[in-house]
Amino acid sequence: MNPEVSSVKPLANYELLLTFTNDEQRVFDSKPYLDKGVFKRLRECALFARARVVSGSVEWSEEIDLSYDTLYLESRPYQIAIPELA
Question: What is the mean pLDDT of the chain?
């Protein structure tokens, strides 16, 4: 069983920075979903920015949500850029 989402932060380019209950941070790219069904509405930046955590998953409205399994399995680990020494 995959961990649930504990926090979400919408990023530029329709990505979500997710923190899971195991303290892992991952980035989910929503762009592949934006041509499908109710997810087309998320092209509106103001709506996309209202992402919130509900019961361990991410929700935008009663009709638009993504399960924590999908978010975990289809996301990539978050990499913090560390400046190189000169």
Answer: 93
Instruction: Classify domain 5-77 at the CATH topology level.
Output: NE0471 N-terminal domain-like (3.30.2020)
* Model confidence pLDDT, tens digit, residues 13-38: 999 999 999 999 999 999 999 999 99
Q: Dihedral sign, CA of 49, 60, 56, 53? A: positive
Residue type, 53: V
Tell me, what's the pLDDT at 62? 77
Whole-Å CA distances, 19 to 35, 67, 68, 70: 26, 14, 11, 14
Q: Do 5 and 68 meet the contact criterion of CB atoms below 8 Å apart?
A: yes
Alpha-carbon distance of 62 to 42, in angstroms, equals 13
